[in-house]
Amino acid sequence: MKETSRKPSLPDVQIPEIVPITMQKFTQYFKGFEKVSAVGEIFGEATVQVLSDLKVEFFSSKFGYMGVSDEDGHLIVSAYYLKNGDPISKYLDVIHELVHVKQYREGKALFDETFEYHDRPTELEAYTHAVKEARRLGMSDPEIFDYLKVDWMSDSEVRKLARNIGVQPPPKRGDGERVR
Ligand SMILES: [Zn+2]
Q1: Which of 55, 80, 95, 176 is 20 to 30 A from 20 in CA distance terms?
Q2: Ligand 1 center to residue 18 CA distance, Å?
Q3: Measured in angstroms, how far is the CA atom of residue 125 from the centroid of ligand 1?
Q4: What pLDDT does 61 receive?
Q5: Low-confidence residues of the chain, pLDDT below 50?
Q6: How far is Cα 79 from Cα 84, in angstroms, rounded to an integer?
Q7: Residue 38 near residue 135, CB atoms below 8 Å
Q8: pTM, full prediction
Q9: 113 C-alpha vs ligand 1 centroid, how far in Å?
Q10: In this structure, what are the phi and psi dihedrals at residue 14, rounded to the nearest 5 degrees?
């Protein structure tokens, strides 16, 4: 028996893999989140109420992951991502999006276009909270950096985002060759 790699393990939550393409109650599909301390830190005493009021809209595109509507604050989740994404990423994305749910409830503009994504205060707050949870799960900075990579951010944007939220980016390939 050899267990050398330390795998981050999730709290006792359920995230669905097969979902209907409709609007549903969050708690009908995402179970146990009201007991997660990282969620309690977001909503405090209102946690159970907020989650039980929260709606989730599943959509069928192969693109995209999760988001929050800036019109009524409901969660929007790709059914394809639920089916194919890795469990830790999906879990951390839920934590991230729940921060946006809170921001919406506070009346904040979720998509302030005067900032680029990797500098936008609402995103940095959501990422900072998700990264704190990732560390609690035992993820290392390289693992967290991998989680941050998405197809719509360039390498340099992901690195800026990582620095903005206190995650150490790995050394750039070819560093040292650029010295002249
Ligand atoms: Zn976000």
Answers
A1: 95
A2: 23
A3: 9
A4: 78
A5: 1-2
A6: 9
A7: no
A8: 0.87
A9: 13
A10: -120, 130
